[in-house]
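Ticket closed. Logging final result for GTP cyclohydrolase 1.
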Amino acid sequence: MSQVDHQKIQQAVTMILEAIGEDPTREGLEDTPKRVARMYEEVFQGLNEDPKEHFKTVFGEDHEELVLVKDIPFYSMCEHHLVPFFGNVHIAYIPKGGKVTGLSKLARAVEAVTRRPQLQERITSTIAESMVETLQPGGVMVVVEAEHMCMTMRGVKKPGSKTVTSAVRGTFVENDAARAEVLSFIK
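Final structure:
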């Protein structure tokens, strides 16, 4: 998706408003289709990004110990219901061969992956796989905690419930102590 078709989004939103019995020409709704089109362009901008691009900038650093960036906030849209889900991503990795990425690159990769119609499980594994492919670290662990509006405002209606997913690669798979260390730091 290279260009967002604002006109098509506006037509669709107008049709949705009509379909639910609303008057899209009333004062409070007359600009809603335009606002939704601009918002969708922003919240789905990750469709045009490859998270691996953010890991191409590396620094030669003699550091092969744990690096953890936790509590990276994100917002995404559930691809099943097109309603938001949001939470935090925690990313840990053990650099290998002097390949260390900038800390901001981890947050930028989260943005690239979450700003598209998405599933939490896919976010988790995509970030981990992108790091493995580009940085070739000794290990990667990604933990995502999120609240899904499709569970809190509709359906089962359980506000405050959190879903936790993890992707574990490399040394974190075999080394229970290393995995436990990351989880203790996250908490």
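The helical segments are 6-19, 32-43, 103-114, 120-135, 149-152, 171-174, 176-186. No further action required.
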